[in-house]
Amino acid sequence: MDNLGIALLDTEKHFTLVSEKLDIGIEYGMFALSLINTDYNKMLSCISDFLQNNHYLNMAMDLQKRKYHDSKVNSAVADQILKPLHKSMAQTLAKEYLNDMQAYMVSLLLMAEIKNKIISTNIDLSDPTVYIPLIYADKTLHEHIKNTLLKKEFAFSDPMQDKINELEFPMSITTTSDGEALPTYYLQDTFSYLILDMQKYLSSSKTINECQCCHRLFYTKYRNSEKYCRLKHKDTPLLCNEIMKRNAKSNSEFAEVRNNARGFQGGRISHPSTQKQYDRDFLRQIYDDWSAECTIKYNEYLSQNYLQGFKDWVEETKFTSDRIKQLQKQYQSVAK
Questions:
Q1: Is residue 202 within a helix (H) or strand (E), and if so which, with residue range?
Q2: How many CA atoms lie within 13 A of 242 on its CB side?
Q3: Sign of the CA dihedral 271, 276, 278, 284?
């Protein structure tokens, strides 16, 4: 297969992607991190749906099946056909670690690989994964790259890693206008760049963790044990670590209300005057029933982050003298 028309220069500080019109630097590891943080299923659907539903590609496939002369899609036509796809992929791509120009270049690289496959062979849209870059066409590979970035030990002994280790990437030397000689790779696919980028990250002292809140991968900032990223959470202006700090505070407030309530209720049924007035089996039963319901209400109101609602429920169900009398009547009615 021909190269993608995009060169990858290694400056020993970052990779520089060079196309006919653009020259964009991307820090080591950011390409791999962005591809993995991009929703696999969403990107797969974005590309496959476009290819299978595109009128011009289906028409070209039909002409090729009928063996019309010169029915292959040429480069210029492919550019026009895939132009809307480039925009969709750029929107789908995770951009937490890429600026707009870098994201544009990465999506251009992905599109160049799709285009190269379309113009190199006869079109068969029955299996669109044939045209999709490998990182979004193979879920197992996607998971393996993710585990490798997380430096999980089992990933390095996986048979898939053995195959990756055997890959060779043809390299040449490019001399810059400043006289600097840079290793240069002429990419045939995005997978080559992904592996080179991942190797650079693995040889660095940086650490990537999986956020316990949003499950995106992120670079740790202060400690390698960090659990939450400092990326915006979904459509909120808050960062994941900010959300989890708030949740931790909220959880402790809910737990305090619950524990105080249990202490009060337990003290009420064990008080000598209460035990003298009521049967102990009855008292134990109403406490067990209340405690079970308390657990349910705790989780219910916690999931809604509705502390006042939980407080109101606790207040309504307190074992006051009147409430215990009412519960005794219900208890005796059931016993009959």
A1: helix 190-202
A2: 8
A3: positive
Q: How far apart are the first and last CA of the chain?
A: 85
Q: Say if strands 181-186 and 7-10 run parallel, antiparallel, or are unpaired.
A: antiparallel
Nearest-angstrom CA–CA distance, 28 and 33: 10
Within 10 Å of residue 77's Cβ, how many Cβ atoms? Answer: 14
Q: Each residue of 242-290: pLDDT tens digit?
A: 888 877 777 788 889 999 999 999 999 999 999 999 988 899 999 999 9
118 close to 78: Cβ distance less than 8 angstroms:
yes
What mean pLDDT is predicted for residues 23-31?
A: 94
The span from the CA of 201 to the CA of 203, in Å, is 5
Instruction: Name 219's bridge partners.
Output: 208
Q: Which two tokens stand for residue 200?
A: 């650079």
Which pair of structure tokens corresponds to residue 316? 């309504």
For residue range 284-322, list pLDDT tens digits in order. 999 999 999 999 998 888 878 788 999 999 999 999 999
Residue type at 268? R
pLDDT digits 0-9 by tens, 143-162: 999 999 999 999 999 999 99
Q: Which residues contact 198 (CB under 8 A, 6 or more apart)?
A: 29, 32, 145, 148, 149
Tokens 């043809």 map to which residue?
A: 170
Return the ∠ at Cα 270 (arms to 268 and 274), rounded to 5°. 70
At 124, phi and psi to the nearest 5?
-140, 100
Q: b/e string for 101-130 if b means 16 or more Cβ within 10 A?
A: ebbbbbbbbbbbbbbbbbbeeebebeebee
What percent of the chain has pLDDT above 90? 67
Matching residue, tokens 């316990």 = 212
On whether the pTM is more than 0.90, the answer is no
Provide DSSP, 12-40.
Answer: SSEEEEE-SS-EEEEETTHHHHHHHHS-H
Long-range contacts of 223-231 (CB under 8 A, 24+ apart): 231/96
